[in-house]
Amino acid sequence: MDKQKGTETLEEGSRRDFLRLFGAAIGGGSLAIAANALVPEARAVSASAKPEIPGYDWSKHHWAFGVDATKCIGCLRCVEACKVENNVPKDANHFRTWVERYVTLEGEGKTRIDSQHDPVNIEAAGAEGKYRFANRYKDAKVDKAFFVPKLCNHCTHPACVQVCPVGATYKTEDGAVLIDHAMCIGCQYCVQACPYGARFFNEELQATDKCTWCYHRITKGLDPACVEVCPVSARVFGDRNDKQSPISIFLRNNRVTVLRPESGNAPNVFYVGIDKEVS
Amino acid sequence: MDPLFHAAPFTGYVYPNETVIPWTVLIVVYPYLTGLVAGAFTMSSLYQVFGMQRFKPVAHFAMLTSLCCMLIVPLPLLLHLGHPERAMNPVITPHVTSAFAVFGYAAGFYVVLLLLENWFVFRPYIVEQAQNRKGPLGLLYRVLTLGSYDLSEKAMKYDKKWIFALAVIGIPGAHGLHGYVGFVFGSLKSREWWSSDLMPPIFLFSAIISGVALLIVLYAVSCRLRKIPIDLDCMKGMAYTLWGFMMFALLLEAVEFASLVYRGREGIEVILEYVAGPLIVPFWIIQIGICSVIPVLLLTYMIWRGVKGNALIAGTVLSAALVLVGVLMMRWNVVIGGQEIAKTGKGLLAYHMPLVERESALTAALLLVAPFVLLAAAVKLFPPWDDARVAH
After folding, report:
1. Strand partners, A201
2. Nearest 5 degrees, angle CA B380-CA B384-CA B389?
3. Distance in angstroms (rounded) separating the CA atoms of residues B189 and A236
4. Contacts of B85 in chain A (CB under 8 A)
5. Do B372 and B68 form a contact (C-beta atoms < 8 A)?
6. CA–CA separation, A132 and A92 (whole Å)
7. Strands of A26-96, DSSP E
8. What distance in Å separates the CA atoms of residue B374 and residue B379, rounded to the nearest whole number?
9. A142-151/A169-171 β-pairing
10. Cβ contacts (< 8 Å) between A12 and chain B: which residues?
11. What does the DSSP assignment read for B237-295?
12. Residues of A numbered 218-257 whose beta carbons fall under 8 angstroms of chain B's beta carbons: which are they?
């Protein structure tokens, strides 16, 4: 996180100055060509982007995430916790995690879907930075309703990593998909490539952003913020290498599914209790 | 100061992060300009490689046009990047699985090729000017000779070989560059509107028709400005070329659209809702109706009836101008259209194009005009006309 904040401070002010950006681009380009001799070193740094975390060895872990949608009550504490923990812009357009509500009314074939970013829900919450689901179906006859928490799937074959032209986003050995904001050029190709809408462009960083499973927390033995605050344990996290971890037990005791398996991305967020409409 | 972002209004269900449209009008301009590069190069190749003499009046002009467009191509991308100062990183430390990482190499290679070919073509003129001109302009030409003043028959023969070889390499180069742009979109499995194996050839053929159409318009304008008569044989040849390539371009697009609907995969209802709603004006009326059907009918009629003289010129130039707008609309409908259909397959978004911002209508307009400002200067420095002294 310190790195992110550092980048942010450094580029504050000059960010939107068109001419300076343009000049910097040309200057940066020429410098880059001039520094051609440094290429092998530069590549080596990028390839071994192993974070230096004291006492943490990423080859010893295999993180995974579980969602039990039958438990989720749509309180959106996870969304709020994530926004605070990860300094995500507090508006209705940038989320590292979100919750979807699926409601089928009696006599209606089509399921109604909304999330906290729906204008009706924002109005009920009172502001964009506050999150709640409006009680919009209180007078309707509900046939079926459930909530589905969503986040980055930290796929085994991530389409976002495949398309990144500089390798700024990468798959760690412990299973997380991370972004190096100091390397991201801000082309947003990865935002396009993600079939789950998990990525967004962080205008403050001028770089792409997304869920990291709170990498700064999990590498210290803590749970991701959303898991920590969930009052009903709808979110489960842990190390698959540890057979007694919550995620190992979750995967052992449940028949799980993943979102859009046909994409070939092989997600590592496993769901229980979602319906056919969920994708 | 620009707002941090524009939130797109939506209907149905869209993922929250989708409400900020990632690729703007500048990413519409980028494939459009790349297409003009490839198309203009095709036009010059018809003479340089395939020896079609009727295209001699536009052959060198086409090459210069291709170069001027190519020099502007990286700009929309650069202006779009969050960190333009890192723009060279994909070239210095490329991530090889990324389709984008290829751009720097492909574009760089192609710029060098175009510069070389233009240099060989205009070398006799450059040498002549270097020997006769004084002042800063004379100095410029002397620098541009690169120390080679040899215009002997042997040297010219040698140059001709190079021009031919470069033009031959340029055909897969130019078309590969543009086919690759189609791949950038077609290879993404996240969007049904883009995800198609036909995307590269669709981009390629629409590129060719846009380049041919551009040359038709520019050639007519240049003749008017130079107060010389238009070579009717050349114009007719270009009309045929445009018509022929349009058949491929339109057929490919029709096949792509038909298979998208026929496959009817998840989310097709929303796609059809989009096609029958927001796309009525930009796609059905402008791109298909006004800018494809009318030019095809007009060109077909002129070819069928053997129209000659001013009627042929007026009809061809009008068709070409419409095609230029049509291809721009095609780029818009692909790039913006793909993002207006939500990845959820259950909702639609509406892109709002700001008028004056870094990524706005004004920037797009300036980028679209820029190649022709360059071209106006380039034709003064290196007259590409048939009557000027150039290597043929």
Report:
1. A208
2. 100
3. 29
4. 21, 24-25, 27-28
5. yes
6. 12
7. 63-68
8. 9
9. unpaired
10. none
11. HHHHHHHHHHHHHHHHHHHHHHHHHHH--TTHHHHHHHHTTTTIIIIIIIIIIIIIIHH
12. none
More confident residue, B258 or B386: B258
CB within 8 Å of chain B, chain A residues 99-118: 100, 113-117
B82 contacts A207 by C-beta, under 8 angstroms: yes
Search chain A and give the residue with CA nearest B338: A192
Show the tokens assigned to B219: 């050639």
CATH number corresponding to B10-381: 1.20.1630.10
Measure the CA–CA gap between B169 and B115, rounded to whole angstroms: 13
CB of B337 within 8 A of CB of B274? Answer: yes
d(CA B256, CA B202): 9
**Token couple for A11:** 């580029």
Q: How far is Cα A150 from Cα A197, in angstroms, rounded to an integer?
A: 10
Q: Once rounded to an integer, what is the mean pLDDT over residues B267-290?
A: 96
- Which residue from A165, A208, A264 is facing B94, i.e. has the nearest CB? A165
Interfacial A residues in 162-181 facing B (CB < 8 Å): 162-167
Write the residue in B93, B98, B344 that is nearest to A46 by C-beta: B93
CB-CB neighbors (< 8 A) of B191 in chain A? 192
Contact: B87, A92; criterion CB under 8 Å: no
Give the domain ranges of chain B: 10-381
Q: Which residues of A touch B93 (CB under 8 A)?
A: 39, 42-43, 46, 166-167
- The first and second tokens of residue B193, run together, are 């509107």
Contacts of B77 in chain A (CB under 8 A): 187
**B264 and B311 Cβ atoms separated by less than 8 Å:** no
pLDDT at B112 over 70: yes
For residue range B333-384, list pLDDT tens digits in order. 999 999 999 999 999 999 999 999 999 999 999 999 999 999 999 999 999 9
Is A36 at the interface with chain B, CB within 8 A?
yes
ipTM over 0.85: yes
Q: What is the pTM of this model?
A: 0.90
CB atoms within 10 A of CB A8: 17
User: What tokens were used for B110?
Assistant: 């192609």
Q: Which long-range CB contacts under 8 A does A169-173 form with residues at least 24 apart?
A: A169/A208, A170/A49, A172/A50, A172/A51, A172/A58, A172/A215, A173/A50, A173/A58, A173/A59
| pLDDT above 50: residue B45 | yes
What is chain B's mean pLDDT, rounded? 95
d(CA B174, CA B378): 21
Which among B1, B339, B333, B76 is positioned nearest to A203, based on CA atoms?
A: B1
